[in-house]
Every structure is written in C-alpha cells, then in structure tokens.
Amino acid sequence: MDANGPIVKHNVPQTPQTPTPHKKKHAKHHGGKHHRKSRSGKKKTGFLCCRGKKRRKSRKGHGKSKSTAHKQPRSKVVKPLPPVVNEQLGDVVLVKNLERSKSFPIQQLPGAPQSPNKVTPSKASKETDKDDKLQKSKSKTKLDEKSDNNKDIKDEKKDDKKEGKKEEKKDEKKDDDGNTEEKKQKWLGLAKRFVDEDANIAANDFEQVVSYIPPSVTKHQFVKNMHKNRFADVICLDHSKVHLSDSSYIHASYLELDTQKRAILTQLPLPHTSADFWQMIIEQRVKCVLLLLTDSEYDSLGGDFVFPRNQDFLNFEERSIRVGEFKRVEIMDGWVLKVVSVSNGDYKSFLHIHHYNAWPHNNIPGNGSPKFVKQIWQLQSVLRKYSPSTPTVYMSLSGCGRAGTFALFETAHLSLHSEQATLDLVKCLEMVRNGRIHACQNLTQFSFVYTLLAEHILDNGFCKLAIPKKPNDEKDKEKDKENEDEINVQMILRQLVINKC
Questions:
Q1: What is the pLDDT of residue 137?
Q2: For the stretch 249-270, what's the b/e string if a residue is b when 16 or more beta carbons lie within 10 angstroms of its beta carbon?
C-alpha cells in the first residue's frame, strides 16, 4: 500500500525469444528439456554443460585405446588356500590331501640352438685356449687316476654289501618258507575237518559250551535297574559292565576280542535310555557302530528315538546332547552307512553307523547261502579299517544273539591269524561269554560261524588240496575242475549250516 493509493502492476506482453541453433541441438540431445538452474542462480549454457560431460568421459577413458568400449578388470593375485587337514574316522580317511606337483628346473636339450646373447670366440682366442686346455688335461689325468683307485675301493665295498644283503634275504626267505609251510599244514588240517562229510563239527562243539557260565559272576546292577533293561532274562554282568562318568547304569558289556582290540555289546536302547547310550558313545570315543536290526524291528521298536532320521537332529536335553545325521549311503542291498555327528557343549565328534538289516532275529542271514556269507566278510573287512584304540559297538535287539554271533566270528578269525593258528570255537565262545553271558544263543548261529570260517579257508585254495584228485584226468577237463572246486565249496558251506534251532 502507498499513501497515494495501491500500486497497480500492468501485465506487459513479453516477446518470445527465438532459440539459437545451439540451443535447438541441446534440447534435442536432452529430450526437449533444458537444464535447471543451479543453486547459485546462474544458468549453465548448453555448450559448457555438454563440454563438461565430454571432459568427464574423456577422464574415465583416459589411458585406453579407442577400440575398447568396456572397462577391463585388473588381474589380482590370488593367494593359495592352506592345505586341508586329513579328516579321519579311525583309519578311514574322509578327506585326503593331494600332493602338490613339484616344479623341476628346465634343462637345455643337447643339440639345441644357443641363445643369441652368447658370443662366439675368435680365431686368436682359440689358439690361446688350446694351451690352457693341455695344462688342464694333464692335471685332470692325475686326478682321474686317484679317483679311479678310490672308485675301485668303493665298488669292492658295495659288492661286499650286496653279497651280504643277498645272503640275509636268502635266510629270511628260508625262514618265511618254513613258516608258510607250517601254516599251510595247520590250515590243511582245518580244511580236512570241513571237507569230511561224516563229521558234525558244529553240533558236537555246541553241546560242550551251550550251558557255559563264567565263574564267580554277579548281577547286582542289573537287578537294581530293571526299568533300563529291555529283557528281564538277558543279564548284564557286573564285572564287564560299561561304567558312565555319573555312575548311571547302561545295559552294555565290554568284550576283549584280542590283546589289542576291544568291543562293546549292547541292546537297542529304550526311549528313556537313549541319552545314556549317546553319553557312552561320547565318553568311550566310539567311531563305529554295527547295528544288526531288520527294518521292521527298527520301525516297531523305536529306532527313531535313538538315531536321527535322514538329515535331521535329535536333542537329549537331560544330558545336553545333540545328534544329527548328515549323510546316508546305501553300500549294497541290506547295508546302509550313516554319518552321524554328536555334540555336547564344546565337544563335537563324528562316527559311522553301519546298519545291516538282512539278518533276521534268532536266525542267520540268507539261511547261510554263499552270497550272504561273502557279504558278512565284506562287512567285517570294512570294520577292520577302524582304529583299535577306540572300541567298536555291536548292537542288536538284546545285544546277545546277532551281536554275540558277530563277536564270536571276530574272535575266531583273530585266532586263525595269530602266531599259533588254531580253530577252537569252544574256547572262543567261552571268551565271548565271559563278557556277555548270553552271546550266540542257538546252534544255528554257532554253525553259521563255522560256515564263515570254512569259506575263508577253502576259498583260498585249500579246497583243492584237501579233496583228493581223481586219477587219469585229461587236460581238457581243467576248466571243469575249477568249476567243480567252486561247487564243492558251496556244498560244504551248505552242509555246515544247521537251520534247526
């Protein structure tokens, strides 16, 4: 407002400005739009703006050729990773380090062209070199004579050492031949026992040991903890019972298979004793468990309460133990390998569970057929690879029938390969029952151990030596003889199996 009155602003029409040719190009370049004003209020001209962009682009592409449109990445030096530590389960290596390839110095081949840096000697220098060579050759001859004398002395010493080593090797071979001949005679005697059709080995031996009870044994802990036993008539002896750190009871027994090898025989845990089982696994540092149960027994008797399912976990809160299954591999029909982790606080370990489900309760696998006999041998050869420093766990429904039979088979096999090769299943079963009183419960299981040992002895060539050959055999029948030997082994194995319990 003013004293004279309000100030009136008249709308004066402005003449439109005609854009310059540079502005037209600039508007087309930016999609028909002009630049906004800057904070300072000054308008950037199109020429300077585009020029600035060109300068920025030129800075980015500085030092590159015009042909390269994209930016190339710079090569970075990658540091080599440290070597992986060998992960083992006993003697079974899971991850093995690969040896790095060694780099050898490059040697120049004979007759190859020399490098251009070498200068060829002139004629004048060749003449001077001849005199030097003559003097050097004279000195070399003297040194060569001395070295030849030394070589002759060294060669004589080497010849004497070689002769001494040859004599030692001959003596060792003689000793080995003597030992092998003694072993062959012992194994031949065992093979003849199997070949004799009239001998009923298994039945006669089992009568001697069927009622064996180890002397001065007690069962106090077994009676006090009846709620932790699966069967009331399968006794866990006090002297061989596995002790836990908190003095709690578990139905498991130690067994001395050999002076260097130890095993644990145990029942399938109950749902309320599963935590005790895993506590035993942790304290005894077990790396291998042999589970002898059929699939129907595993499902109906609560195997999922003890072992986790495929890629699953089990938590035992009363002992703060966590068990998880990471991998499952089917080795063959009836044989599954499970890789399981066990953790308790800061402690964590891995172990293998070999679940063999082709062995029914109170019976033998495949009625003792040669196929299943070889399958048990394959299983036993895998279990032998685990270190003897930690015990192997044999588990069946009661921990006596199938687990005890496998323990008897293991002790008998170790006795065959001892210093004095003997086959006395009566003594072997007494040793097993000193730790697990009800091991190998019937005659069928006892006779199955005989078939396993017979397959091991006769299939190694002793069947040909034990069975007398027929006279006047023709050369064309050699192949038929080999087939006859295989048939004889199978017939002997079937005769040794006694299916009547």
A1: 60
A2: bbbbbbbebeeebbbbbbbbbb
